[in-house]
Amino acid sequence: MPRRVFVLIGDDIPHAPAANPQHLNWRTEVAALTTQGISVYAVQALNRRHATPFYRELAHTSGGFHLNLDQFAEITDMLMAICYRQDGADLKIQRYEQEVQQAGRMSRSLRRAFATMQGRDLAVEAGPIDLRAVPAGRFQVLEVDESMPIQTFAQRNGLIFKAGKGFYEFTKTETIQVRKEIVLQHRETGDLFAGNQARVMLGLPLDENARLRPTHLEEYRVFVQSTSYNRKLVARTRFLYEVADYDPSDTATPS
């Protein structure tokens, strides 16, 4: 019979016993779960550095796993992988891993999760030279189902949005201002990159505005920072939303 597990998904540390209604102590609770043979899959979203020790201890104490969830859109594949892992048959999780890969849904964070749950070492993959990796907790990638202004899109998705905190997928000829940040998304891994090299790869000068036609980069999608609330997002594209309380000094490197 598969062992029971508790999957906890969060992005921060729990409240202290004196600060929650039932005065719960998480260490007491996880100890009780462990005595019942229930391990915890501690799924950490947004990779906040100060919260990482909590998720690691939670997993270690209970005999579970500490997993990182970079994109909320990956949650279904993450939960399915956990279910197959708990089924106890290595072949099932291996087959599901292949299914995710073949369907084009395999991101670097999911690859880390599959490796962690199967006890595999995962080789560190470096990004392209001069491209700066964007911290995993900075953006969420959202699908745009129909054309609409950024502010409307944000409101429909329950997002807190400020001008400059969103990046639209580049699809038509326009003038790209020098002050606007460019972000590239690797099509296979889902990794995000920025830096001056991103502009260079698109043929954009570093010190002046320039007119740019849609550029097909075989490996990357191109996103441009929007400083407008009314910029119209195009249907069937993607939108990078910068998490409202993102703090670059509090972002950990995924384990």
From TrEMBL:
PANTHER family: UBIQUITIN-LIKE DOMAIN-CONTAINING PROTEIN
Name used for this protein in its record: Uncharacterized protein
Organism, scientific name: Reticulibacter mediterranei
